[in-house]
Amino acid sequence: MPEIAAFLALMVTSDKPIVMTGAVKPHTAIGADGPGNIVAAVNTAATTGWSSKGNEVGIVIQDKIMAPWGTKKENNLFLPETRSLLGDIVDFKPFFRWLPGPCAPMKFDISQLSPETSLPEVAILHAQQDFRSGLVAAAIDMGAKGIILVGYGDGNWPVASGEEIKKMTTKNQVVIVFAAEGQLEYVANARIGIGIAGGDWSPRQLRYGSSYRFCFGPELVRKTYGVLS
């Protein structure tokens, strides 16, 4: 759900609020949460003072109101970081800590893309101490236009493979985005002297979003995610 919410936040411009919800338990289970989540989501969407035009898409589930960025789902739980928790649901009514703010540096229009448009390949690779740069080479050989490197902590990457990755991606004009695996980590700086810092976007959000942005050229990826290091 955070990935779809992030997608909508980047691509839908509307004067109306957009709120996503769902259910953790099936409707046949005791204590099914789906019906209550729908009521809470409708009440949240009816709150005056915000729209989805340049602002966040909201997620309402598990008695929380969340922004997509920095929210992850682990073990069937939605876990927002501090900045992503917009408010709480009490008796199916929203209590905002603050209204949704700007979602990303820019939105973009995909209406010009036809249904037959093939999305460019974007790979996700995870750090390990003996990471082999050949994995990056393999991704490039398979046509990857972008690679999400999921590092340690706040995006740290093993030095041993860094220089070779830098050479390969520069030569092949492949865009590198650095991400963090941890829930509370924020990637503020790109690593190995190249690439883009992924901030609090999850690896999957970065991958899905990058695939669409590459349809408009690599420069749009850089503008969307922030400052190129």
TrEMBL record:
Superkingdom: Eukaryota
InterPro entries linked to this entry: Asp/glu_Ase-like_sf, Asparaginase/glutaminase-like, Asparaginase_C, L-asparaginase_C, L-asparaginase_N, L-asparaginase_N_sf
Transmembrane region(s): none
One Gene Ontology term of the molecular function aspect: asparaginase activity
Residue ranges of every copy of the Asparaginase/glutaminase C-terminal domain listed in the record: 122-190
UniProt name for this protein: asparaginase
Residue stretches making up the L-asparaginase N-terminal domain: 1-75
Pfam family, one: Asparaginase
EC number(s) stated in the UniProt entry for this protein: 3.5.1.1
GO biological process, one term: aspartate family amino acid metabolic process
Top EC class for this record: hydrolase
